[in-house]
TrEMBL record:
This is Amidase family protein. It comes from the Bacteria. Pfam families: Amidase. InterPro entries: Amidase, Amidase_dom, AS_sf. Residues 43-424 form the Amidase domain. It comes from Pelagibacterium nitratireducens.
């Protein structure tokens, strides 16, 4: 298991206190404009953070953990003992505090991680752009006038600003990978069944997954090992077979994404990866399948407070949930059957490749003003490529591919469900190649 604890150096002769790490995170947050910080965190309690760090310093077993002293921001849909889980909504803000940590949070803390604030998100995690009418719109780290991406919007900014080392996020249709890619970070969406969902407020039980955002894939891998209670498997870095996705996932790329993707392909080819252009015909109609299944499950989850959402919820989110009311009786069953067939077809095609690649997103981050004026189209555009992998029940990482350009783009490395460590191992190699 990868040890990334910053509390000890490899020389063995130098150690640091978790309290010092916490103080640095708090100082970094204090240097952020308060109006901006309020769009990133729904709760940032410095006393709580310091108390947790001091407790870690006094706990020899947790200090020996592989994440000891790592500052982890927690998306506001994960339960933390004593905290209210609002899922980015005022509707849940007056609920009872959680009686225990979500399993994902519990595992991170047991490995020595320190909770570093609860991060803002799209309401109920139901959009890919990261806007929230209750907490505000966190801007992009490269241009505050552009979107951060969602739904793990605050989590991405907490890492990009250097407040947290890792952000704990969820990914139902791209909610880890979208904000990671738009803010120059790495992100990992694991196999849907890899990390227990207990204690995480659901959007869609068929699609929800739990994954990290960080500066490097190595950090994502270390977090995933703890979250999934699995160990990395050795990867053979020679003669890797990569399918380069054509068709839907490369349609309508903007100029920068197209150029960055081509340069990434050239780098991988020069590194002697075996690249083959491929089609993914099983993706035909996937967007409608996702819409039917996710909206149907979300509608059942939120049925008891739809009336209150009419009064104070995000109208974009409410409209997506209420879409389920227009579906025909057999639509959900038909959608599930189409998805099952696509998953089987993808798994069969993947037998000839180690991983596949595509741009994480087809464009750079849109302007917030443009998203507010054209929400449905731009939200759909942000979700398109990442949500295709959720449809296929796959796992996927995103790594930066924009080099020194002013706005970030991401390269998505993906494979069928169950191939998490293959994807992570190859993504770490690719991140190194693209950064050199």
């Amino acid at each position: 298991m990868t040890d990334i604890s910053p509390l000890r150096s490899n020389s063995g002769g130098i150690t640091f206190r978790a309290e010092d790490r916490a103080r640095r995170a708090i100082d970094t947050a204090m240097n952020v404009e308060p109006s901006v910080l309020q769009t990133i965190f729904t709760r940032f309690d410095a006393d709580r953070i310091m108390s947790e760090a001091r407790a870690l310093d006094g706990d020899a077993e947790r200090r020996a953990g592989p994440l000891a002293g790592i500052m982890v921001s927690i998306k506001d849909l994960f339960d933390e003992k004593g905290q209210v889980t609002s899922a980015g909504s005022t509707i849940l803000a007056d609920g009872e505090p959680a009686s225990r940590d979500a399993i994902a949070v519990e595992r991170l803390r047991a490995a020595g991680a320190i909770g570093c604030g609860r991060t803002a998100m799209s309401e109920f995690a139901y959009s890919g752009v990261g806007l929230n009418p209750h907490f505000g719109n966190p801007g992009n780290i490269f241009d505050p006038a552009r979107i951060s991406g969602g739904s793990t919007s605050g989590g991405a900014l907490s890492v990009a600003l250097g407040i947290a080392d890792v952000a704990l996020g969820s990914d139902t249709g791209g909610s880890v990978r979208i904000p990671a890619a738009l803010n120059g970070l790495c992100g990992f969406k694991p196999s849907q069944s890899a990390v227990p969902l207990d204690g995480a407020f659901p959007l869609s039980q068929s699609y929800d997954s739990i994954g990290p955002l960080a500066i490097t894939i190595k950090q994502c891998s270390a977090a995933h090992a703890i979250l999934s209670a699995t160990a990395a498997s050795p990867q053979n870095g020679e003669n890797l077979r990569i399918g380069v996705a054509n068709g839907l996932l490369t349609e309508g790329l903007d100029t920068q994404v197209a150029g960055d993707f081509q340069r990434a392909i050239e780098r991988l080819s020069a590194a002697r990866f075996i690249l083959s252009d491929i089609e993914l015909p099983m993706l035909e109609g996937f967007g409608n399948v996702n819409r039917i299944i996710v909206a149907s499950e979300a509608h059942r989850i939120h049925a008891d407070h739809l009336a209150r959402m009419e009064a104070e919820g995000d109208p974009h989110v409410l409209r997506r949930i209420r879409a389920a009311e227009s579906f025909a009786p057999n639509d959900e069953a038909d959608a599930r059957a189409q998805r099952a067939a696509a998953i089987a077809a993808f798994s069969a095609q993947a037998e000839n490749y180690d991983v596949f690649i595509a741009p994480t997103l087809p464009t750079v981050a849109p302007l917030i003003a443009d998203v507010e004026a054209d929400f449905d189209r731009l939200n759909g555009l942000m979700l398109r490529n990442p949500s295709a992998i959720n449809f296929l029940d796959g796992c996927a990482a995103t790594v930066p591919m924009h080099a020194d350009q002013l706005l970030a783009t991401g390269l998505m490395i993906f494979a069928p469900g169950g191939d998490d460590w293959t994807v992570l191992g190859i993504a770490e190699h690719i991140q190194t190649l693209l950064a050199s």
